[in-house]
Amino acid sequence: MTPRQPRIALTFGDPAGVGGELAATLLASPEVYAGTDVLAVASADEVDRASRHANVSPEFADRIGAGRPVLADPGRRDPLPDVLGRVGEDTGRWALDGLRHALKLVRAGEADGICFTPLNKTSLHLAGMREHDELRWFARQLEFTGVTSELNVLDKLWTARVTSHIALADVPDKITADAVAATVTMLDESLRDADIEHPRIGVAALNPHAGENGSFGRQEIDEIEPGVRAARESGIDVAGPFPSDTVFLKARAGAFDGVVTMYHDQGQIAMKMMGFDKGVTVQGGLPIPIATPAHGSAFDIAGTGKANPQATFNAFRLAATMAARRMTQSAHK
């Protein structure tokens, strides 16, 4: 029996932002989704509107496997919010409905992974999302209680973080040896899912100069170093902690495939400086591959067709690669 292609559910993001036009551009680019079956999670009017904004004309098939995307309409009762450049409960609800339908497709075995275009967290919260971010929302929907982290990907460099969307003042108390080891392990597994067979991981310090032997804080001595050591003893190729102002210089020079940072901006600033228009966010640790462009919903250019689709293309390809890897692993069990 010939193995089938991976199937990716593509959602259109926040209808007030650039998500729709990015999705439409991808659907009109067969070279991007070659080797993958695409389920476009959208209504026909949503596709039409997004296609006008992007000035493209995607072609659809009436069945999966025919070489073109298929429409997977969530069947929403509400009309498409025909607005641009604003937050709102209606746009947040529309976006959440799309994500729920994508998860439904995965649970039913009709999709193997998800790529979603940019969302707006304020709109999602207005629509009732209680979690801090999409990652925690996905985890709750999937009833997943394991280790998770947003992973940021730029070309072949990945980052994970021990803490994420919390106040900077709360970070030090969350840095524990167990949390560091668990994040390193999760990043190692994710890199292997992306076909990196022997990942090399560097870990950033929390304090200036990696604490300078305890002069500027003891987190490196008491928590980060023991966490790195535990991960190394489990068989992972990991080193650190390194001062956070130099660890990305080492990574950019090819020393590491992935970097574990201690808090959100420690890694995000470096990654976005190196390639804002290309970066991808992976919802790391979840039982299914989920990826999205690392940039936001860009309300200021929504509807103009100016949004750069490269990060969306990269996110889609990465979701497909991870899905294919997991399909292969499942077939060999």
UniProtKB/TrEMBL annotation:
Q: Which Gene3D superfamilies match?
A: Isopropylmalate Dehydrogenase
Q: In this record, what's one Pfam family?
A: PdxA
Q: What is its EC number?
A: 1.1.1.262
This entry's Gene Ontology molecular function terms read: 4-hydroxythreonine-4-phosphate dehydrogenase activity; metal ion binding; NAD binding
Q: What top-level class of enzyme does the UniProt entry assign?
A: oxidoreductase
Q: Which residues form a coiled coil?
A: none
Q: Which UniProt keywords apply?
A: Metal-binding, NAD, Oxidoreductase
Keyword NAD (UniProt): yes
Question: The organism sits in which domain of life?
Answer: Bacteria
Q: Which PANTHER family match?
A: 4-HYDROXYTHREONINE-4-PHOSPHATE DEHYDROGENASE, 4-HYDROXYTHREONINE-4-PHOSPHATE DEHYDROGENASE 2-RELATED
From the Swiss-Prot or TrEMBL record, give the protein name. Answer: 4-hydroxythreonine-4-phosphate dehydrogenase
Species of origin: Spelaeicoccus albus
